[in-house]
Design brief:
The complex is a heterodimer of chains A (160) and B (186). By secondary structure, chain A is mainly beta. Chain A has one helix at residues 2-22; strands at 39-41, 45-46, 55-57, 63-67, 73-79, 86-87, 95-101, 107-109, 115-121, 130-138, 150-159. The termini of chain A are far apart. Chain B is built from 1 helix and 10 strands; from the N terminus they run ββββββββββα. In chain B, strands 2, 4, 5, 7, 9 and 10 form a 6-stranded mixed β-sheet that branches. Chain B has a 4-stranded antiparallel β-sheet with strand order 1-3-8-6, with no helix packed on it. Classes of the chains: A mainly beta (160), B mainly beta (186).
Chain lengths: 160, 186
């Protein structure tokens, strides 16, 4: 009986030592459940050369807004008044007008309030995860300032 | 000897992009459905960027996007608090903001499915020259499901190691008795 017990103990010890000698290869799997929201435009600014009373437009594919995030997004667009001019539906004295297009013929006014630019841009890696667009500017008909004016166009992405 | 020097002009075309930054988690679900009571939750919001930027985070239940089906707007935005509301991030840096969600533990807040938006807006940094410049803002969609009903502490299922300890004790006793019996037999 004792021999059997001793034999079992030695066998267990040898097996455990063998398993240690064999070593182990580990593969670390890092799983991140957090989705990222991230949109990017291939343009950072537009510097038109139009003068007072004139208008100027880019091509309809000038800008490319791409969803680089992990989640589909709804994108809104808005713009700010500049320091000396206001963003209006029509150009006028100290009033300028901005609009955007995706086809070069139909233009949508950009206002200071959010409005839908694209209701669903698929996540990165999926087909159609971008929108191309162009801009059109109507300069004021007259102005009381000679300063360079800047308007910020904001794309707001909402996770869907 | 005339030497002809051939110059190679390398033209680098740099495509400028607006200040790129990102935010996560874009969507998040806090599920307390299988909990016994409403408890405060902590989630970390991460912001990463390519340029020096200042980001302002606020809460909103009113944006141009419909709520998810089956969810109502969070009734009180003061239940969600940010560790910081104004965050400055250096180029290629990342900042974390702790978000604490503390829903009052009262009967009417049980069995609810709420949704709210964390609005992360760029307030400074990036291009500022004349013309039209671009920037990006993000609305993160977070959801909360509260427990169905409150369960008093004395009615909760306790997952202790007591049953395992009892079983182990029984096995030891049985083993000892077995050994004694075996020895006596021998």
């Amino acid at each position: 009986m004792k021999k059997i017990v001793v034999g079992l103990l030695i066998t267990t010890l040898i097996l455990s030592m063998l398993s240690v000698q064999a070593g182990t290869e580990t593969i670390t799997i890092t799983m991140d459940p957090q989705e990222t929201i991230n949109i990017e435009c291939n343009q950072s600014a537009w510097d038109p050369s139009a003068k007072l009373g004139e208008n100027e437009a880019t091509s309809a594919t000038w800008g490319n807004l791409t969803n680089e995030g992990d989640v589909a997004v709804l994108v809104n667009i808005s713009a700010t008044n500049s320091t000396g001019w206001t963003l209006e539906n029509t150009a006028g004295h100290n009033q300028f007008n901005l609009s955007w297009t995706t086809d070069g013929s139909a233009f949508t006014l950009i206002t200071t309030d959010d409005q839908t630019f694209d209701a669903n841009i698929p996540a990165s890696g999926q087909s159609g995860n971008y929108t191309t667009f162009g801009l059109k500017l109507y300069m004021p008909t007259s102005t009381s300032t000679g300063d360079v004016q800047t308007s910020t166009i904001t794309f707001t992405a909402t996770a869907l | 000897m005339n030497r002809t020097v051939i110059g190679i002009i390398v033209v680098l075309v740099l495509m400028p992009t607006a200040s790129s930054w990102m935010c996560r988690p874009a969507t998040w679900m806090i599920n307390m459905e299988e909990d016994y009571e409403i408890t405060p939750q902590e989630v970390t919001l991460s912001l990463e960027n390519d340029e020096n930027l200042t980001i302002h985070v606020i809460l909103s239940a009113d944006i141009l996007s419909p709520l998810t089906k089956g969810y109502a707007a969070l009734p009180d935005l003061t239940w969600v608090m940010f560790e910081h509301e104004e965050i400055s991030i250096g180029a290629h840096d990342e900042q974390q903001v702790n978000v604490t969600i503390d829903i009052p533990n009262v009967t009417e807040n049980y069995g609810k499915a709420w949704e709210f938006f964390i609005c992360a807006d760029q307030t400074a940094g990036g291009e500022t020259q004349g013309g039209a410049v671009f920037q990006y803002d993000y609305n993160l969609r977070w959801k909360i499901r509260t427990p169905e009903t409150y369960v008093p502490e004395n009615e909760r299922e306790e997952h202790t190691i007591a049953p395992i300890m009892v079983l182990a004790g029984l096995l030891i006793v049985a083993g000892t008795i077995g050994m004694i019996a075996l020895r006596k037999k021998q």
